[in-house]
Amino acid sequence: MHPREIGKHSTARADRRGVRDDTTDSSGPLARTTLGVSIKFGPNVEIYGEGEQAEYVYKVVSGTVRTYKILADGRRQIGSFYLRGDVFGLEFGNVHALSAEAVTESKVLVIKRSALVSLATRDSEVARDLWTLTGRELARAQERVVLLIKTAQERVAAFLLEMAERRPAGDAIELPMSRQDIADYLGVTIETVSRTFTIMERRSVIALPSARTVVLRDRAALRQ
Amino acid sequence: MHPREIGKHSTARADRRGVRDDTTDSSGPLARTTLGVSIKFGPNVEIYGEGEQAEYVYKVVSGTVRTYKILADGRRQIGSFYLRGDVFGLEFGNVHALSAEAVTESKVLVIKRSALVSLATRDSEVARDLWTLTGRELARAQERVVLLIKTAQERVAAFLLEMAERRPAGDAIELPMSRQDIADYLGVTIETVSRTFTIMERRSVIALPSARTVVLRDRAALRQ
DNA sequence: CGAAACATTGACAACTTTCAATTGCCGTGG
DNA sequence: CCACGGCAATTGAAAGTTGTCAATGTTTCG
User: Fold this and answer.
1) pLDDT digit string (tens) for A55-102?
2) Could you read off the pLDDT of B170-217 as tens digits, one per residue?
3) Residue A25 half-sphere exposure, CB side, CA atoms within 13 Å?
4) Which of A68, A54, A61 is nearest to A23 (CA)?
5) Strand C lies under 7 A from the Cβ of residue B199
6) Is residue A26 scored above 60 in pLDDT?
7) Residues within 7 Å (Cβ) of strand D
8) Higher pLDDT, A49 or A32
């Protein structure tokens, strides 16, 4: 129904370095942990694949990561974008339900899942943190459901507001992802994303100095 | 954008009875608990409202429950349907993110949340059960996201398969909910649901002995 | 029986996708 | 330096899908 060529992955060439990085957020055990090393992934390099054993949990140190799933008919659905400080790859089953790739060059902190889970059985605070993290994902997924029943314009507007909120940097947003990524996240085509941007620009709701830079000129209008 | 009249709630007339019911599933502490009483709710009676304190966690003993949210423009989005054995109302914040109503007359086991949460800090098994329950909700929400990027026909087909799987009773499904409920769950209009049913019937993919009974005649076709 | 709620059907409008072509950007090689 | 190729993004036109509005049919229940 929506056949589309998916870009081939270049081979992962992650230079492993036993570096621990400080991160700025406060998501409990994953911030405090002394476990884990950070690894660098180039653009479009796979971090893990759908169906693989979920041996590790990941935290974005820098860059942007996307999780996604390829549907039976070839469409790609992006699960989420993860920015600096976000945790991803935490699963309930033993295998990853989605694949993960670096969007831009990204540094990712890798933590052994088994260590975390066994720690949780002893430390109720860690257990609560894991639960909270999962709850956060759930809340995000639920917002997504609400987003996806809306029109294309509303989806794009909500996407821009979400990005602006997650990366508070005034009114100018640097989008790390392509139009195709945005389209697959919102469940529309790239043409619709592009057209919507153009319309919003024409109405002075946003400005587009470059394809990857969006300036929010009228947030009230974006919120409708 | 999608203005629509929302049916008024009749006043809740839940006859409280201190009855504990045995249930058939195996979802950990909520199955074992000796806490809680079961309460009966008539059709369309509110169980809790969005924004209320999340004092209790609920488990469906019989009947069907829906959670939902009214969007700014008046549209209603249904979060989930909960059938016999399902747990709902478990929150991360202290307030309910969605409202809950009985779809049909339903008996619901009510459990004090505080008891459960404090138990979890002492019993790592309970904590893990809570996490698993949340993980299950997350998985459901994620499937929903995948569903919502599809066409109306695919959504309806997926809905029927989901119901058939959750309530394995041969090929005949008794739908407890109205077309409006289905539409608000799938993010389409009742007309689209109705038309899709008609098309599927014409193609002998399903049969509709009555509006609320669907017979699956060709599951392969439903899966596309 | 009759009213009200629920469901189906039709015609048309609006929105989104599809298909196709063009434009803009950027890095490589002549 | 400029030309060229390749890729991403934009734009246009036509087709397809879904929503809206309106009418009709069906079921439920007092």
Assistant:
1) 999 999 999 999 999 999 999 999 999 999 999 999 888 899 999 999
2) 999 999 999 999 999 999 999 999 999 999 999 999 999 999 999 999
3) 17
4) A61
5) no
6) no
7) A 7, 178-180, 190-191, 193-195, 197-198, 208, 211-212; B 1-2, 151-153, 187-189, 191-192, 210-211
8) A49
Chain A closest-CA separation from residue B224 CA (Å): 10
User: Which DSSP helix (H) or strand (E) runs through A57?
Assistant: strand A56-62
Question: What tens digit of pLDDT does each residue of A117-166 get?
Answer: 888 888 888 888 888 888 899 999 999 999 999 999 999 999 999 999 99
A126 in Cβ contact with A68 (< 8 Å): no
- Both structure tokens of B37: 């009483």
Nearest partner of A169 among A84, A50, A90, judged by Cα: A84
3-state secondary structure of B27: coil
Estimate to the nearest angstrom the gap between the alpha carbon of B197 and the chain centroid: 21
Q: Write down how long chain B is.
A: 224
Q: Residue A138 is which amino acid? A: L
Instruction: Let me know: does B99 contact B50? Beta carbons within 8 Å.
Output: yes
- Name the token pair of B114: 């505080």
The answer to whether the Cβ–Cβ distance between A187 and B135 falls below 8 Å is: no
Q: Which of B134, B148, B149 is facing A134, going by the closest CB pair?
A: B134
With 0.85 as the threshold, say if the pTM is over it: yes
Q: How far apart are CA A44 and CA B69, in angstroms?
A: 37
Q: What are residue A9's phi and psi, to 5 degrees?
A: -80, 135
Q: Is the CB of B191 under 7 A from strand C?
A: yes
